[in-house]
Amino acid sequence: MLAAFVNLWRLKHLRKRILFTLFMIAVYRIGTYVQVPGMNAALLTSSQQQNALFNILNLFSGGAFYRFSIFAMSVMPYITASIVVQLLQSGVIPRFEEWAKEGESGRRKLTQVTRYLTVAFGILQASGITYGFVREGVLYFHDWWSYVVIVLALTAGDTLLMWFGEMITEKGVGNGISIIIFVSIISRFGQIGQEIYQNWFYAHPGPLFWSVVKVILLVAGVVALFALIVFVQQAERRIPVQYAKRVVGRTIYTGQQTHIPLKVNAAGVIPVIFATSLLFLPYAVAMYFSQRAWAAFIMRYLSPQSSWYIALEIVLIVAFTFFYTHIQINPQQLAEQLQKHAGYIPGVRPGLETEQYLIRVINRITVFGSLFLGVISVLPYTILRGISLTSVYMGGTSLLIIVGVALQTLQQMEGQMLQRHYRGFIR
């Protein structure tokens, strides 16, 4: 592992990408401390124990939400916009579906639409949050222009983060938006550990032996959970494929055996991020109309502390996993490519039967993968609530994102190193 890290810095191209990514992360972390004007920090800090959804926003923004900095909304509006655009590609808007099939030019058009929607959702979310804080006395100003300035500052911060993510994806390593969320969650680990100590150990002192046992069980549980997540994220179903002997021009291609690797969780952490963002949107709108009956209903039942929220999050994660898996893996296209290159699955006829076979296999493994994502996403928070640590928020969503982004980034660097005959990290 140490040799792999040394080799990592020998590659000039990869070294520049890593340094660029670190620079963008440093700028982002500095920006989380740039506060918008007119905030009463003491009241905002004291209110963090009263709203579990605020704890989620604070976690995903790396503490920027409770400082009410320009990056307080993190990348939530961008993620929501991405969800909407991907859903509209599935036959809802034919033009979007055509763009999705046009390759690079169509992707640029869809990216532009996503940017516009990000600004629109950012304005909506910033307006709701600002209005809610004004009603609670956290923000104070005397005219409507100050309200506009705060909303524009929050929206500009969200748009800047979107640009940071695109630049990291293009010139850095890993997926930029995922890297930003990853850094935000990691930056909160120290504070979460402090809260666990104060609420579990310091507030309830006991014999030293039992304190040591608690620490050992806590560390062992976290390590076991991480190991389980890594195991499932790396698990795959290998479908054997046989290629027949064929002649192309004067070249003879002999038959060979290979396999199609289908990951148990092909969608990665995208369904978890999508579900969390989608559940937050109605809550943000309800904050703007908090006096209405329907808004009170949403704020009551879509609070992360409610059982309805947990159940709905699992359902959305399962649905988004199936949806995104079939976007990532197209059985019809895969079957056509096999037939085109004289390949077939032993015991399955090429063409339609191969497509149907692939659909059945993908659906079976996705059932397990989606249920795993759903259960893991709510398990840590449920355990913390069961041992009376309700003031500490650490959902499985955070752990899934950490593992998923770390593996994705390592695999990208692994590919860069293997291309230049260097041994990588993953063995």
UniProtKB/TrEMBL annotation:
Main location: membrane
Keyword Transmembrane among UniProt keywords: yes
Gene3D superfamilies recorded: SecY subunit domain
InterPro entries: SecY, SecY/SEC61-alpha, SecY_CS, SecY_dom_sf
Membrane topology of the entry: Multi-pass membrane protein
Single GO BP term: intracellular protein transmembrane transport
Location in the cell: Cell membrane; Membrane
Entry's transmembrane regions: 18-36, 64-88, 116-133, 145-165, 172-189, 209-232, 266-288, 308-327, 365-384, 390-410
Domain of life from the UniProt record: Bacteria
Keywords of the record: Cell membrane, Membrane, Protein transport, Translocation, Transmembrane, Transmembrane helix, Transport
Example of a GO cellular component annotation carried by this entry: plasma membrane
Similarity comment text for this entry: Belongs to the SecY/SEC61-alpha family.
Complex and partners: Component of the Sec protein translocase complex. Heterotrimer consisting of SecY, SecE and SecG subunits. The heterotrimers can form oligomers, although 1 heterotrimer is thought to be able to translocate proteins. Interacts with the ribosome. Interacts with SecDF, and other proteins may be involved. Interacts with SecA.
Function summary: The central subunit of the protein translocation channel SecYEG. Consists of two halves formed by TMs 1-5 and 6-10. These two domains form a lateral gate at the front which open onto the bilayer between TMs 2 and 7, and are clamped together by SecE at the back. The channel is closed by both a pore ring composed of hydrophobic SecY resides and a short helix (helix 2A) on the extracellular side of the membrane which forms a plug. The plug probably moves laterally to allow the channel to open. The ring and the pore may move independently.
HAMAP family in alphabetical order: SecY (MF_01465)
NCBIfam families assigned to the protein according to its UniProt record, in alphabetical order: 3a0501s007 (TIGR00967)
Name of the protein described by the UniProt record: Protein translocase subunit SecY
Annotated source species: Alicyclobacillus cellulosilyticus
Lineage: Bacteria, Bacillati, Bacillota, Bacilli, Bacillales
